[in-house]
């Protein structure tokens, strides 16, 4: 019955029999049989099924909530009996937005794998949001705290943004001495799925909202960074992306006395997001601790 309960939990988390079948490496028909047998033993209907969706019944919601600790405790007990509870091992699936993954995560993963040779990392660099419940992901690294109460978040670092441009660009264009000057410049823009783009400036009690335009828009920061280095325009990007180029003087800070953000309420913080569990798996805990140590 325990295995059937685990199948039931995966179906609920995945949202469909077919998705659960992929995660568990089972045929969809086997998933359906497990659910049928579980419902027969419980003598109640847990899921209402249609061609489009699965809906938990009231009994199903109650059983899902109450049986969660049973499944978790069973996994912990089995791990203890096998002597693996404290040993990080197994597949760790990580989803991270492209620029942070390339610049900050990829360079430190080899060290982590040397420390924990029994862990295998599957790294997905993608700027789209993922659903940890249905996309079969252990950790997602994103800007901002998730709204889903079923997820936990651990802060990795501040996402401070800096205004920069190449020396070549600045030598060939009008001086930028105040935020409003940017209206006359080509600004390299992060796509925010809206027609107008604004950058928000703060200095003490002074606040400015500046409308900016440019000939290059990207969801990821890397294309914008490359364009800025080639003298194509003014760049507003995270410090962790531009810092090496400021140090090498390939980029120059603009209006350093001002705090600049893409959003009025700031650029947020970068978090590692994972499923809520009383005891996260050892390889997840180990990677969380490792990231905090290396990135802070």
Automatic annotation (TrEMBL):
HTH lysR-type domain sequence ranges: 1-57
GO molecular function: DNA binding; DNA-binding transcription factor activity
InterPro entries per the UniProt record, alphabetical: LysR-type_TF_proteobact-type, LysR_HTH_N, LysR_subst-bd, WH-like_DNA-bd_sf, WH_DNA-bd_sf
PROSITE patterns associated with the record: HTH_LYSR
Keywords: DNA-binding, Transcription, Transcription regulation
Superkingdom of the organism of origin: Bacteria
Similarity field: Belongs to the LysR transcriptional regulatory family.
The protein, known as: Transcriptional regulator, LysR family
Organism: Shewanella benthica
Classification lineage: Bacteria, Pseudomonadati, Pseudomonadota, Gammaproteobacteria, Alteromonadales
């Amino acid at each position: 019955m325990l295995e059937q309960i685990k199948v039931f939990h995966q179906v609920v988390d995945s949202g469909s029999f077919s998705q659960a079948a992929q995660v568990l490496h089972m045929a969809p028909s086997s998933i359906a049989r497990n659910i049928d047998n579980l419902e027969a033993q419980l003598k109640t209907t847990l899921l209402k099924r249609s061609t489009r969706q699965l809906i938990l019944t009231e009994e199903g919601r109650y059983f899902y909530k109450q049986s969660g600790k049973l499944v978790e405790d069973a996994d912990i007990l089995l791990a203890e009996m096998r002597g693996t509870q404290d040993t990080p091992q197994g597949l760790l699936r990580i989803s991270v937005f492209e620029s942070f993954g390339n610049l900050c995560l990829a360079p430190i993963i080899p060290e982590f794998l040397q420390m924990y040779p029994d862990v295998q990392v599957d790294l997905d660099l993608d700027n789209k949001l993922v659903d940890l419940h249905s996309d079969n992901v252990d950790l997602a690294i994103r800007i901002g705290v998730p709204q889903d109460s079923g997820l936990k978040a651990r802060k990795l670092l501040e996402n401070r943004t800096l205004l920069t441009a190449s020396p070549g660009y600045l030598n060939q264009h009008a001086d930028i001495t105040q935020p409003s000057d940017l209206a006359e410049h080509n600004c390299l823009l992060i796509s925010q799925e809206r027609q107008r783009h604004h950058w928000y400036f703060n200095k003490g009690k002074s606040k400015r909202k500046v409308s900016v335009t440019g000939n290059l828009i990207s969801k990821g920061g890397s294309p914008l960074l490359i364009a800025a280095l080639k003298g194509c325009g003014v760049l507003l990007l995270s410090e962790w992306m531009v810092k090496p180029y400021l140090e090498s003087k390939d980029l120059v800070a603009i209006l350093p006395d001002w705090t600049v953000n893409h959003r009025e309420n700031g650029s947020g913080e970068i978090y590692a997001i994972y499923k809520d569990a009383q005891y996260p798996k050892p390889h997840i805990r180990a990677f969380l601790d490792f990231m905090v140590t290396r990135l802070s």
